Amino acid sequence: MVPAACQGAVGVVCREDDAWVIQLLSSISHRSTFLEVSAERACLSALLGSAEAGQAGQPFPDVAWGCNAKHDSDKATMDLDCFVSDLEGQELLRYTEYDRSVVDSKDAEALGSLYGNLLRMVAGGLGWLQV
């Protein structure tokens, strides 16, 4: 089972120009979690067309989706698992990538966007999503 994107992650927002708060938050930031969340949000943003879309406000009520990223900081690689399915789970599109090189948030976002867009195109071609 693929968990909901960003499951268990805590996000904190601050002003761009507040150097003191940025420094404070960077001391408690977990790099691997940050990269995982970046990939998952990018995947869902590409898939759903909005970074703000969530399960409750789901624009596609006839499908379920999920995305899970796992970053290995020792190897600077990421595994990404994402899917779209019908609500009954009878039909499933799933992409899984293992050991993809990810060294920063741009790499993580690019990986997430790639697979989100692939899922969107294929699911759209099957009539599951409007693309």
From TrEMBL:
GO terms for cellular component: cytoplasm. One of its GO terms (molecular function) is hydroxymethylbilane synthase activity. GO terms for biological process: heme biosynthetic process. InterPro entries: HemC, Porphobilinogen_deaminase_C_sf. PANTHER family: PORPHOBILINOGEN DEAMINASE. This is Uncharacterized protein. It comes from Volvox reticuliferus.
